[in-house]
Design goal:
single chain, 211 residues, 73% helix, mainly alpha
Length: 211
């Protein structure tokens, strides 16, 4: 609830997360476990590059896996495209992001927004040989990642681009199912939006009025 409120710009929630994080940094006071995800995700959404680096260092040195997971998700919550691209590159470097965490980081980034999802897809596409070599022939969940990333598209141009890319691939092996399911989900999403365009537009006008 708090994270959702902060992600929509509810200032009291943002301020609360900022206070808890600042107290933690300045005094060493631990953030309560039930607020950990909210605090770090909220702070990371619009933080500076320097603060993001500080959170990354916490991730790199944290020994508790549960906290690492929260920090990983927080790092992927940023709205800054330059930072997103930096984190994407880290997923190809085991010294920065552990191999077993890379897929999770990619998925968290892609779920942040349409621009983040598009950048994630472009990164996977442009580095396809690496990702397919590292994850395409193992039970790594790469098919689930592709299904998630592709399935979030809703524009015809994106769907066509994904189709064109994979039509040129002779052997997708274990990831083919994820690609197909992702494209099916994207087409369903596009069809639903096309059929409900007027109602969706009215909903946004009511809930997010323009000045």
């Amino acid at each position: 609830m708090l994270t959702e409120a902060a992600s929509h710009g509810y200032q009291p929630a943002v301020d609360y997360a900022e206070k808890l994080y600042t107290d933690h940094v300045s005094t060493g006071k631990e953030v309560e476990a039930n607020l950990y995800s909210f605090v770090y995700a909220t702070v990371a959404m619009n933080c500076t590059a320097e603060r993001w680096e500080a959170i990354f260092q916490e991730y790199a040195t944290e020994s508790l896996q549960s906290k690492q997971r929260y920090l990983m998700k927080a790092l992927a919550s940023t709205f800054d495209t330059d930072i997103i691209k930096k984190l994407l590159k880290y997923t190809m470097d085991e010294k920065m992001i552990r191999r077993q965490d890379a897929r999770i980081v990619l998925m968290h980034i892609s779920m942040g927004s349409y621009p983040a999802n598009l950048v994630t897809w472009e990164f996977i596409r442009d580095n396809w040989e690496f990702f397919y070599r590292e994850y395409g022939h193992t039970n790594s969940g790469f098919d689930i990642l592709l299904e998630s990333v592709i399935g979030q598209f809703y524009k015809e141009s994106d769907i066509e681009e994904v189709n064109k890319f994979f039509n040129n691939k002779d052997d997708l092996g274990s990831v083919e199912r994820g690609v197909k399911k992702g494209l099916e989900a994207a087409k369903h999403r596009k069809d639903w939006l096309d059929q409900n365009k007027e109602q969706t537009g009215e909903w946004f006008k009511r809930h997010f009025p323009q000045d």
